[in-house]
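Hey team,

Filing this mostly as a record. A colleague (T.K.) asked me to run one chain through the structure pipeline before their review meeting, and I want the input and output archived in the tracker in case anyone asks later how it was produced. No errors, nothing strange. Just documentation.

Input sequence:
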Amino acid sequence: MRKTERHRVHGPNSLWQMYKTVSFWKVMRSFIVAQIARYTPFLKWKNWMYRTLLKMDVGTETSFGLMVMIDTMFPEKIHVGTNSIIGYNTTILAHEYLIDEYRLGDVKIGDGVMIGANCTILPGVEIGDGAVVAAGTVVHNHVAAGTFVAGNPMRVVYTKQEMEERRQKDIFFQEATDQ
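Output structure:
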């Protein structure tokens, strides 16, 4: 299950009331920085903008691909470990605005995680170290460390143990063909 805080609203839908929950100026600043970062080809600059201007927790040598869209309302709730890759056009959300409530949740992406292109990561999700998320996946639940997930709805393709066994076979096969 995702870890989100639920906040009830009364009257119009929660998105209509969003500036009661987050400052207009914060959203504007975050939007402008996120748009610049989406097109910046320099990974160090991109990470600096995320860390310094948006207060995101981004590990060293992490790479955000072209067109990655981070949450512009609550970017400080996004945490990405060291040496991870976030693929092209992926969206990372830390909020959900629904009719009668809105939800907030930290997104935690571990070290050495590979996220394919065009994924959507929902609020309150944790992706463990060394996990692999296939392109186009909607990450709606936690992903255990070392597992390979894919699809919509997301499902486990290989567990950590199966991934390790496949890597060992690949290493063995590579060594056998090199000789």
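Quick notes for T.K.: The mean pLDDT is 93. The two ends are 48 Å apart (CA to CA).
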